[in-house]
Each structure stands twice: as structure tokens, then as C-alpha cells.
Amino acid sequence: MRGAIPCNETNLDDWNSEGFPYLCELLFTRGALDVSLCPLIMKKGRPGLLLRVITDPAHGLELKHTILSETTALGVRFHREERMTLAREAIMVSSPWGDILAKKVLGPQGEVIYPEYEACRKIAEAHKIPLAMVYRAVSRAEERKEP
Amino acid sequence: MRGAIPCNETNLDDWNSEGFPYLCELLFTRGALDVSLCPLIMKKGRPGLLLRVITDPAHGLELKHTILSETTALGVRFHREERMTLAREAIMVSSPWGDILAKKVLGPQGEVIYPEYEACRKIAEAHKIPLAMVYRAVSRAEERKEP
Amino acid sequence: MRGAIPCNETNLDDWNSEGFPYLCELLFTRGALDVSLCPLIMKKGRPGLLLRVITDPAHGLELKHTILSETTALGVRFHREERMTLAREAIMVSSPWGDILAKKVLGPQGEVIYPEYEACRKIAEAHKIPLAMVYRAVSRAEERKEP
Amino acid sequence: MRGAIPCNETNLDDWNSEGFPYLCELLFTRGALDVSLCPLIMKKGRPGLLLRVITDPAHGLELKHTILSETTALGVRFHREERMTLAREAIMVSSPWGDILAKKVLGPQGEVIYPEYEACRKIAEAHKIPLAMVYRAVSRAEERKEP
Amino acid sequence: MRGAIPCNETNLDDWNSEGFPYLCELLFTRGALDVSLCPLIMKKGRPGLLLRVITDPAHGLELKHTILSETTALGVRFHREERMTLAREAIMVSSPWGDILAKKVLGPQGEVIYPEYEACRKIAEAHKIPLAMVYRAVSRAEERKEP
Amino acid sequence: MRGAIPCNETNLDDWNSEGFPYLCELLFTRGALDVSLCPLIMKKGRPGLLLRVITDPAHGLELKHTILSETTALGVRFHREERMTLAREAIMVSSPWGDILAKKVLGPQGEVIYPEYEACRKIAEAHKIPLAMVYRAVSRAEERKEP
After folding, report:
1. If you count Cβ atoms within 10 Å of the first and of the last residue's Cβ in chain C, which end, N or C, has fewer?
2. What subunits make at least 3 CB pairs under 8 angstroms with E?
3. Cβ pair E105:C74 closer than 8 A
4. Cα–Cα distance between E2 and A113 in angstroms, integer?
């Protein structure tokens, strides 16, 4: 699966970054594919952050406006990136605590099953067991053949 | 306000850090005063993370167990830190969108009003306006005298 | 406002980074639009830095030469980025310590006034008050209509 | 298992950090228990690194001398930290590629088996398979009862 | 020396990054020109890493497959970068411990001699002297005219 | 040279960090021995910064007040650290551009001469040559015997 997607970036050095979790959710709601912040040192020794937002091409403009409204950025830079992605599929795997949602990915060397964070987290909370224990169980699990 | 509090630390280099948001909530529920992760380079060039958990002294042991259950840490280091903290108070400030919870802090140079993230976030979501706009409004607001 | 600008990058792992503040000033003097350093882990577990220099297109070559002279980089990579920038304007705002230079930005959701670091810093130094206090005053200030 | 151990720290801003992998090996050879580097911003906007070396108490002085000889540090700060560590044991687990060394750790919620990086790496190199595949196999493995 | 080269990137938030040193060696063996990891904050407050692999154009596909096999990445983004590189040459310099391999680089302001990490490291190990001392000696050395 | 000194720390997640260069200068003016900022991930996925200020014991209180006035910190944690420092001496070394201030340090393996950033920077600016060239010259220089 391939396709060119916009990558938007801006350097922030005067932003109250407490707003990042909210910004992040807004961006995903409005079509972002990936959001990240990276720590920087900027001019005059100011600590800063590089905000990168990979977008669905259809929502590029709305996401730029979101960045410019929610942060102190005065501009957004962007370029296109090509992409190669693996085929993936939602599956159910069995666990001592019942079936759990996971994802099956077709990698270059065969299928791999990865836990889904939110699904594991719900099990951990409900059963008051470590999340790490749920992850380990999913890694050991077989895909449930019959739904 | 002063008092010695334990600071627990562990270096993690083989942890699936996807579990950090969950760990963080667990730790606060169980008495943590502050939690942070700091990026590291560890032996053999492994990327790692320094987890630091400042605790209420009464919950030190339970929090160490949480760290040891939820991460791949094989140990926790800890030392005591003294603390100086400012007096603070929850207040209401008026805004174009109604009264908003904020905090008033008595600093060395007088009182300062700081926005409360969660309170501002709710306003931003309810009114579909930038969080930054709510923050700016709170910064400009007067404390509401009459409750 | 839009336009393609070069983004130059180089990974540094054997540089005495003490020279960064000087390099930074040189680059701005010679036409850089933005300069940042980002912490990296590089091959063999070496700590490194990613230097990024966004340039005015007219000065691209001179800036590459500056990077290659001042650091231990053996090469510079570069690509072009598009840009969307907000209209901005220098303004004066009134404060308890006299008028202060600030900037007015026309964002997607209306005008916003941002403090100018250097202007606020001068006030803080002259009046021996916290810089944070000056910032808060500017955030509360009205634009001075009559010059 | 508990005991107070020295934690040595120094801030480096004029070090050619290319030497870190070598320094790291030296420190472990001479009795370090853990070594890490953390990215910093220091005075005048200089990028820097915080070197932390947790030591076996018997080798504290030799390790301080190593830090002062190998880096540009002009001093080392240190304090003592308490420690709580989990019991652990080297075990063999079976895998499709033969038995592999792993470690069994007695955590607050029972036994957990963790892969050993170097052992898995050797398998990955010998069989030209992804290291991630070996890790997953070890996570699924049972401890070999009979040696 | 100039030429367009692919830059591959992926954001990792559920990877056991202990495997980075192995991944790094694999990538260089298979044609990578540069590899780096940069610390990130990703969605939901997850700590993450940006893996960047600059490749020889001929090995782009093999390196993408390596990234997708060895990490938990579900995709790789890539774009082309132009490059300007300095002419360089392997040379021998004389030192109190015999001749040492170094590199001579033709920079915009003349020739500069840089130490070679691995060559200096071997001297430091063999003579049990600080690596920093060998580096300083190489910086002071003259190129050996006669081979 | 040894002695216990206070190390003050605070985690900042709602601070406009643009003020760091100013804060840093203030802290040094008022008796700080070292100041650093380290990037963090804090609760709810907020990006944050760890501010550490190593102080001369006599100025501990004034520096805590400076931190609490200039940042949004509501408290400061502190503990004492022991220190081992090397004897050092200001010296002049000769260079193609005249004598330059440097420092001579008595390390565990003998004397080492380190360039002084500000002195080298002035030479680089005055002669319009790379700072890296001045550093290299100082590294090669002999101490000037006669003052």
C-alpha cells in the first residue's frame, strides 16, 4: 500500500505545551494520521518543540489551521512523503480473561500479532492485573479461529 | 510548606513504553505526587527512559511494587528530597464563557493566577474554540469576589 | 503567504557542541530563518545532534558552507519545504512600565497578541521584576491606538 | 535486596561525545552498575549531556577518576541512593532454534521470564532471522525443567 | 559531491528498543548511510522514537523490509534529499604510540584532520590511556608524508 | 576539593520556556553553580522540562525564590550532593591570532588544556574565522611561559 501524504512541521519555542494532549486529540479527530513532538534547542538557547503532523491529504488545510489556532506557531512548513505500509487486520485472540482485540500484521517475514493498547488496558483495569501481564498473554495467544 | 519525600527512579531499556499513560494514572491513583519520563542513552547504545516517581511517603512501598509489576525494571533506586512549596488556592475566575476554575498561587513576588488545564479544556470542547483562547482569557481574568 | 524554502540537515556525533550559540548567531546573520538542534542516538550508541537550518533560498549555499566550516559535518542534506505563514505586525502595547513592543498575529480565529521576548526582557532587567510578570502584563494589555 | 549505592553525576557541555561507547564499556569493566546519558540544555543555550554512573560502592573512586580522565568534566557530584531489587535467576528456555539463555525474575505479582538481549542476538545472527522473532519466541517459551 | 538519496522514517511507540544496536548494525551492513533515533512524545502521551535511515538508493527496498521486520512499525515514510558532501581522504598521522589512521577533510576553509574513533579506541585500549588523550594527540599531529 | 552543595529541581509542564535564557543568567548572577534543563514526558502526556539548579550553599534560598518567581513552578525539591572537583588554573596560550585565555586542569592522568569558549569566540568574531579553527589551534598550543 503506497501513497504520498503531507507532513506538516512547526518549531515552537513560546508555547505553553500543557495543551498538547488536547491538541493531539483534536488533530486525530480532524484527520491526522500521526502526531509527534520532539524536544529541540532553538536560537538563543531556548528550549523548543518540533511538532510534526502527518495528514490524510484531504484534511491538510484544516489541520494547518488547527495548529495555527491552538499553538503559538506563526507558520507551518510542509512537504510530501511517500509511504509503504503493511497489510493489517483486526483479530480476536483468546486469553485467560476472555477474548481480546489484537492486530495481525503481514510483515516481510510472515504474520505477527500485536496487542492493542486500549483493549489490553481495559482488561488490566477490569481484572486489576498489570498491563504488562496482559501484553505477555496476548503475545503468547493463538488467534481464535471461530468468531 | 516543607517536608522530605521519597524520589524513586529506575532506568528502563527493554520496556514497551506504550504502557506509560496507564502506568502514570495507576501511580497517581496510588499516591504519586509527580511522575516523569526522561529520554536516555544507555549501555551498548540502547535508547532508554528514566522513570521518576515522587511519592507521598505513606505510599512508597505500594508505588515501588507498581513500578516493578508494570515495567521491566528489576529494581528501584530511591532517595529523600526536601521540598519548599507555595501556598495555593482553588478560585473561580469569570470569562466570556462563564466562571472557570483556576488556581491562585502566593509566590515570592505576590499572587499569580494560573489556568487549570482540565477546566479550560472543558470550555474549549464545549464552545469549540481554541484552548489557547481560553487560556488567554483566564490570564486576563479577575478573580470573582462573590461566590 | 507561501513559498518553497530549503531545509538543510546534518547529523553530528563528534562535534564539541559548545559552539552552538555562536553557530546559531552566525547562521541568522547570514540569512537563516530558523535553526534547531535535536538530540539523537546514532550508530554504535553514540549520542548525537540533528542540526536543522531553514534558509532563505538566496543564502542556501553560504549557510551550507557555514555549517561545514563550523561543525565536524562532512556533508549536508537538504530538501525543499512549502510554507504557510500568518500575517503579523509589530505593535506597541501599554504596560505599568510604559509601552512595550509586541506582535499582533492574524490567526485563523482572529487576532492574537504575543509578547516579544527581547522587549519584555529589557523591562524585566530595568525594573528588576520577574520576566513572567512582564509577559502576564503584555498578555493582559490592550494595543495602544494612538502612537 | 537493599543497600545504599553511590550515584555519580556530571554535566558535560564541551565533550566530543563520540567517546561514549568506549567510556561506557570502561565504566562497566571497572564496577559500574548502570550508566546513562541524558540530553540537556545548559547555560548560554549550549547543548549538553548529563552523565550518570551508578556504582558498586567499592569502586566509587576509580570510577570518578575514569569520568574525569575520559571526559572534559572538571568535577563529579554524588549522593547515595537506597535500592530495592528483585530476585532473578538465569534460566534456559526452549525455542525452535535450540535452548536460549533468559532470566526469570520474581516480581511482586509472580514470576516473569525476560529475554536476554545478547543471547537472542546470537540466535538472530546465526539463523538470519529478525531479533524481534526470537524475542517473541522467548516470550512464548516455557522454562526447560531438565538441564 | 551531490546526489539525491532516500530518507526513510518511522515513528515507533510500542517497540522494545533494546534491539536498536542490532538493528543499526544490520542496516549499515545492508547499505544504510546514516541511522538515527530521536526521542518523541506521541499520541496519548506515549513515549516514542523516530527512526531515520538515510540509504544508498540501490538498497532502499531491502532496508525498508529490515525496518518492518525488526521493529513494530506498520509502515515507513520516505522522501528524497539532495546532498552536498566534502571530499575526504584516509591518512596516517604520527603519534607517541605509533601511526594512527585519521581522515583529512577538504572543508570550505581548508583542510582539517579529524580523528577516527575506532583507530583511537584501539590505541587507548592497547596502551591503557584515556581515549581523550589519544584524540588530543591526533588533533596535534602532522600528517605523515612518507608512507 | 570537596563539599556538599544543594541541588534544586522542579518539573515544569505549563511554562513558556522562552524565558529560559533570561532565567539562566539571573540564576548565575545570584550564585548558581550549574543550571540545566532536561526534556520530560509528564502526566497526561504533557511535554515538560526538568530544571536543575546546583547552588552555592549560601544562595540556596534566593535561588529557590528566583525559580518560583520566574517559572510556573509551585514548589522546588532539593537534596545535598557531595562533590569532587579538579584543580584548575587560568592560563594564556599562544595562537596565530595572539595569546588566548584557556584553562589548565590537573586531571587524574596529568595536565590538560581546555579552550575557553568566550575567549575563542571573540577571536573567531574578530578574525572572521571558524570557531572550530580557533578551538583546534588552542588544542595544539603550548602554554605561554612568560606573562
Report:
1. C
2. A, B, C, D, F
3. yes
4. 42
- Give residue ranges of A with CB < 8 Å to any C CB: 9, 11, 14, 38-45, 48, 50, 64-65, 68-69, 72, 74-79
Residues 6+ apart with CB under 8 A from E70: D130, D131, D132, E19, E22, E23, E26
CA F65 – CA D40 distance, rounded (Å): 23
Rounded Cα distance between A138 and A115, Å, is 6
The chain B residues in contact with chain A (CB within 8 A) are 16, 18-19, 22-23, 39, 69-72, 117, 121, 124, 130-133, 135
Q: What is the DSSP letter of F142?
A: P
Q: Which residue has the cell 556533508?
A: C75
Q: What angle do CA F111, F114, F117 make, to 5 degrees?
A: 165
Nearest by CB to C109, which of B39, B46, B133? Answer: B133
Closest-CA distance, C59 to chain A, in angstroms, reads 18
Q: What is the CA radius of gyration of chain C?
A: 19
Query: Count of CB atoms within 10 A of residue D82's CB?
Result: 15
pLDDT tens series, chain C, 147 aa:
457 899 999 999 999 889 999 999 999 999 999 999 999 999 999 999 999 999 988 999 999 999 999 999 999 999 999 999 999 999 999 999 999 999 999 999 889 999 999 999 999 999 999 999 999 898 888 777 654
CA distance C140 to chain A (A): 16
Q: Which of A41, A62, A67, A80 to mutate to test the interface with C (most CBs of C within 10 A)?
A: A41
Interface test mutation site (partner F, options D10, D68, D81, max chain F beta carbons within 10 A): D68
Angle at C117 between CA F53 and CA F34, to 5 degrees: 15
- The separation between CA E133 and the C-alpha centre of its own chain, rounded to angstroms, equals 22
Instruction: Describe the strand order of the beta sheet including B110-115 as a list of residue ranges.
Output: B88-93, B100-107, B110-115
Provide the grid cell at E92.
596516517
CB < 8 Å to A48, chain F: 17
B137 with B98: CB under 8 angstroms? Answer: no
Instruction: Write the CA distances from A93 to A101, A128, A139, D127, F111, integer angstroms.
Output: 6, 20, 9, 29, 65
Residues of chain A found within 8 Å of residue D132, distances taken between Cβ atoms: 112
Q: Which residues of C touch B130 (CB under 8 A)?
A: 109
Pairing of strands F5-12, E110-115: unpaired
CA distance B123 to chain A (A): 12
Interface test with chain C among D17, D22, D27, by most C beta carbons within 10 Å = D17
Question: B76, D84 in Cβ contact below 8 A?
Answer: yes
DSSP notation for chain A? -B--EEEEEEEESS--GGGHHHHHHHHHHTTEEEEEEEEEEEGGGEEEEEEEEEE-GGGHHHHHHHHHHHS--SEEEEEEEEEEE--EEEEEE--TTS-EEEEEEEETTEEEEEE-HHHHHHHHHHHT--HHHHHHHHHHPPBPS--
Whole-angstrom CA distances from A95 to A16, A115, D52, F13 are 43, 12, 41, 39
ipTM of predicted complex: 0.92
CB B76 within 8 A of CB D108: no
Q: Can you name the residues that pair with F48 across neighbouring β-strands?
A: F40
